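>> received
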Amino acid sequence: MQLGLFDHMQKHDNPARTYVDLYKNHLEVLEFADQAGMDFYFVAEHHFDMGFSECPSPGSFLGAASQRTKQIRLGPLVYVLPLWNPVRVAEEVALLDNLTEGRLECGIGAGIGPFSFAAYNIPWDQKREMTLEALRHLDP
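>> returned
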């Protein structure tokens, strides 16, 4: 059996907590999970979802995590493809794959939050088509 963590980086239980402290604490938990022999760590990508999930850039966080861990496999769950340029996703995934020395797991999806789409001026009702188009660009 393999075990992993799925992280939403919530701070709703302590709104006064600083982001510096939030991210530092999650990196420390991740280091401990790696040392304890856990198999996977995934972090959610959410935008403007204050309190529920505070990681708008899983790639940035995983880049930092890659330098503090040795064995645990790391990944975003998910890259919300309609909010990303597919070339940018491919570049970031390649960078993270190298930083993790092959320990990257990559999740992709269409998104679940219409408020995020509105903030980026992306039409919610076109997310399926946009996801399929991005997948066509990502598939070699």
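>> The chain is about 40% helix and 10% strand.
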